[in-house]
Write a structure and sequence with these properties.
The complex is a heterodimer of chains A (505) and B (253). With 505 residues, chain A is α/β, with parallel strands linked by helices. Chain A is built from 15 helices and 23 strands. Chain A has an eight-stranded parallel β-sheet. In chain A, strands 6-22-23 form a three-stranded mixed β-sheet, with helices on one face. A two-stranded antiparallel ribbon of chain A has the order 1-4. In chain A, strand 2 and strand 3 form a beta hairpin. In chain A, helix 4 crosses helix 14 and helix 11 crosses helix 14. The N and C termini of chain A lie far apart (66 Å). Chain B is an alpha/beta fold and 253 residues long. Chain B folds into two domains: 65 residues; 154 residues, Glutamate synthase, alpha subunit, C-terminal domain (Pectate Lyase C-like). Helices cover 15% and strands 26% of the residues of chain B. Chain B has an eleven-stranded mixed β-sheet, with helices on one face. In chain B, helix 1 links the parallel strand 1 and strand 2. The longest helix of chain B is centred in the last third of the chain and has 18 residues. Chain B is globular and about 50 Å long. Chain B starts with 8 loop residues before the first strand and ends with a strand. The chains are: A alpha/beta (505), B alpha/beta (253). Chains A and B meet through helix 3, strand 5 and helix 7 of A and helix 1 and strand 12 of B. Strand 5 of chain A pairs parallel with strand 12 of chain B, so a sheet runs across the interface.
């Protein structure tokens, strides 16, 4: 083995007084860190490959294990941090692009944490959501400019032909995660939880497994540049179609699912030969302009007889407002915008950490622009890119989103510990892997229950917060920025977000 | 070549928006099961042949618009004229026979079926074609092609016959098969090495190739009334990807 300058990132401490050498840790670690020596009846650990996923710590029956960051302190340097040094050592050894899983872990400003919500006091009454109706139902799709109603013998009749709409019982959906990037059991958990919660999950660009067709009414099917698994039955089965242009973790670039992850089952779903690389080109080669985008939107509408909404997913980038305006005018029914902190199964680290803009600023800019142009009703806006709790949902809706996509939060609900090693295919929690030994760790019944619990919990909290504001429908919060105030933000940021500073009335 | 047993439904597309025309096609095919349709006076109507779920042969007279046969899953379309861009986009099954030329990105991400083009095609034709199990898409181009032919090609067969080239004239396409990681191209005529994308290599034809070429050329000749023997007299170059993993060593794990 060649000499490596990379030192272990984590250190495993085993309390030998507690350890009963039961070997649970040995069996649980896909990185083969723990090793049982039968002669000595003793378990050893090799720190060097530990990714800090806490699988062994969580499952150790006697609580004998502790994982700490390796207390190896590089000489203090605010510029050349340990991470930057390690990255260079790794690249000097391999000559390759650094990869990461999950969303950016950098300390970029998180505007959610600088925005605060309002509540009613004295001059307007708050509402108790436990006793009074509180409406979270959300319709995703194009709304008409005006409604034409006729009066007949049976009362009023809607004459306007409505564009197809997705009905969500709460303004939260599961973000696109493909079969291939995550396991079948994870996909099944998401599909069942979407059904239980009356929301949608999203296939990502990996096609739709045969056994998941029964959840079609709760499925958004993606059409991405690789067109994997896209055929007329796939399009027919889904409740809505989504053209994937970009992703917050890797704006502007394509993706490569390595051949190792293209198992027999993944191969069937993507409709590509087993073991071949699945290459998603950076652009769609039939989309080089807004006019071309319009052409693909209409191709999908023609392919499904105008029965389903067709949305567009883009990454939040600098000129997001005019881009979104173009997409709205191209005929999209919704625009999903994925911010700088959005997650991924694999992205070049340098792109994940440096390209794009935060979702809070993107949604505010797009909502403002579409209103100025008088076309906000023509599209729904879905916000993605690190929605961490119901407070973030409330804030992004107040900034202008119709609904949110959650990816990382959903994975965490199923057990993800953010070790960021999804691209290795060795997810010890059975999520981002196709190894059958690992995937069986996620019981889809338990997974879907945990996800449905999360959606229920957030929805209850949203109702509480809405009630506190004296609002009884999520509709009334949308783009209602008067219910937001900024703290610790400069004037430029406040203007971009369209909110007042706290204390300024 | 309309079916003899059943009367052909004649549609006059004059002044029809593509949505109206496609609605008529859906009703005729999906609802009424009409197996033979002729559409006259087609002037750029898009997406013809999509969302049709019964066996049908459609003759298009005029110029169909972009995305002819996109997401198509079975129909047979004969175009008496030129096709525009994106013909056969993400097509799964069926056949398109074009008595004329076809535009850019013909056969984009096509997974199955066949496209026959009598004359030339535009840029990026056959981009990201893929094969899977019994699905093996085939594009046959009678004339020549523009740059980036077979880019990202992952499966299937792409054949260029060069019949529109004058004596002494060569194919001018460059970047042929850039990013190619599957499938086969057969090019009749000469190619300089600089015209090939990185990662694409020439290999000698074997017996199976000779059979396939002969079979496809005979069918091409039958579709467009050409002399197969004369076409087969030319020399064919076979192009395949040098690696099935062109991006295998890009990352630090």
């Amino acid at each position: 083995m060649t000499f490596s300058m990379l030192t272990p990132e984590f250190r495993i401490e085993r309390d030998q007084e507690r350890c009963i050498a039961c070997q649970v840790c040995v069996r649980q670690c896909a990185n083969d860190i723990h090793d049982y020596e039968a002669d000595e009846d003793w378990v050893y650990s090799d720190h060097s490959r530990c990714v800090g996923c806490h699988r062994c710590v969580t499952l150790c029956p006697t609580g004998a294990l502790t994982v700490r960051e390796n207390p190896l302190d590089f000489r203090r340097n605010a510029n050349w941090t340990a991470t930057r040094l390690r990255d260079i050592y790794k690249q000097a050894e391999t000559g390759g692009i650094l990869l990461s899983g999950m969303g950016s872990d950098q300390a970029h400003p998180i505007y959610f944490d600088h925005l605060l919500l309002n509540a009613s006091q004295v001059t307007n009454p708050s509402i108790d959501p436990l006793r009074e109706p509180m409406e979270l139902r959300t319709y995703i799709g194009r709304k008409p400019d005006r409604l034409e109603v006729s009066r007949g013998p049976g009362g009023l009749r809607l004459e306007t032909q409505m564009a197809p709409q997705l009905v969500l019982e709460t303004p939260i959906m599961f973000s696109a995660m493909s079969y291939g990037s995550i396991s079948y059991n994870a996909c099944l958990s998401l599909a069942r939880a979407a059904q239980r919660s009356g929301i949608m999950y999203n296939t990502g660009e990996g096609g739709l497994h045969r056994d998941l067709y029964e959840y079609g009414s709760y499925t958004i099917a993606q059409v991405a540049s690789g067109r994997f698994g896209v055929h007329s039955e796939y399009l027919e089965t889904a409740a809505a179609l989504e053209i994937k242009i970009g992703q917050g973790a890797k704006p502007g670039i394509g993706g490569h699912l390595p051949g190792e992850k293209v198992s027999a089952d993944v191969s069937r779903t993507r409709m590509i030969p087993e073991g071949t690389d699945a290459l998603s080109p950076a652009p769609h080669h039939d989309i080089y302009s807004i006019e071309d985008l319009s052409q693909l939107i209409n191709a999908l509408k023609e392919a499904t007889d105008y029965k389903k909404p067709v949305g567009i997913k883009i990454a939040a980038v600098h000129n997001i407002a005019p881009i979104a305006s173009g997409i709205a005018r191209a005929g999209a029914d919704y625009i999903a915008i994925d911010g700088l902190r959005g997650g991924t199964g694999a992205a070049p680290t340098i792109i994940r950490n440096n390209v794009g803009i935060p979702i809070e600023l993107a949604i505010a800019a797009v909502d403002t622009r579409l209103r100025q142009e008088g076309i906000r009703n023509q599209v729904s806006l879905i916000a993605a890119g690190s929605i961490r709790n119901s407070g973030d949902v409330m804030k992004i809706v107040a900034l202008g989103a119709d609904a949110v996509y959650i990816g990382t939060s959903a994975l965490v609900a199923m057990g993800c510990h953010l070790c960021q090693k999804c691209y290795t295919g060795k997810c010890n929690w059975g999520l981002a892997t196709q190894d059958p030994y690992l995937t069986k760790r996620l019981n889809p019944e338990i997974g879907s229950r945990r996800l449905a619990n999360l959606i229920r919990a957030w929805s209850l909290e949203i109702k509480e917060m809405l009630g506190g504001m004296g609002i009884n429908a999520i509709e009334s919060l949308r783009s209602n920025r008067d219910h937001l105030r900024g703290v610790g933000l400069n004037q430029g940021e406040l203007d971009a977000l369209g909110v007042k500073a706290a204390g300024m009335g | 070549m309309a079916s003899m047993e059943t009367a052909t439904l004649e549609i006059d597309a004059t002044g029809l928006h593509y949505r109206q025309l496609n609605t008529q096609l859906r009703e005729a095919v999906n609802r009424d099961g009409i197996p033979s349709i002729a559409i006259h006076n087609v002037y750029g109507q898009r997406y013809l042949g999509t969302d049709l779920h019964q066996p049908v042969e459609i003759h298009i007279h005029g110029t169909p618009g972009n995305d002819l046969g996109s997401f198509m899953d079975g129909p047979r379309i004969v175009v008496h004229g030129n096709a525009q861009d994106g013909c056969g986009n993400t097509m799964n099954e069926g056949e398109v026979i074009i008595h004329g030329r076809a535009g850019d990105v013909t056969g984009h991400s096509m997974r199955g079926g066949k496209i026959w083009v009598r004359d030339d095609v535009g840029y990026r034709v056959g981009i990201h074609m893929k094969a899977y199990q019994d699905k093996r898409p085939i594009i046959i181009i009678g004339g020549t092609a523009q740059h980036f032919l077979g880019e990202y090609m992952a499966g299937g067969v792409l054949m260029v016959l060069g019949l529109s080239l004058r004596p002494g004239e060569h194919h001018t396409a460059s970047y042929i098969g850039t990013g190619m990681h599957g499938g086969t191209m057969y090019i009749r005529g000469e190619l300089a090495d600089h015209q090939l994308g990185k990662g694409v290599g020439r290999v000698p034809l074997d017996e199976a190739d000779e059979h396939l070429i002969a079979d496809l050329v005979h069918r091409y000749a039958a579709h467009f009334d050409r002399d197969a023997a004369e076409i087969l007299d030319g020399s064919f170059i076979k192009l395949v990807p040098l690696s099935l993993r062109p991006y295998g060593r890009l990352y630090a794990y």
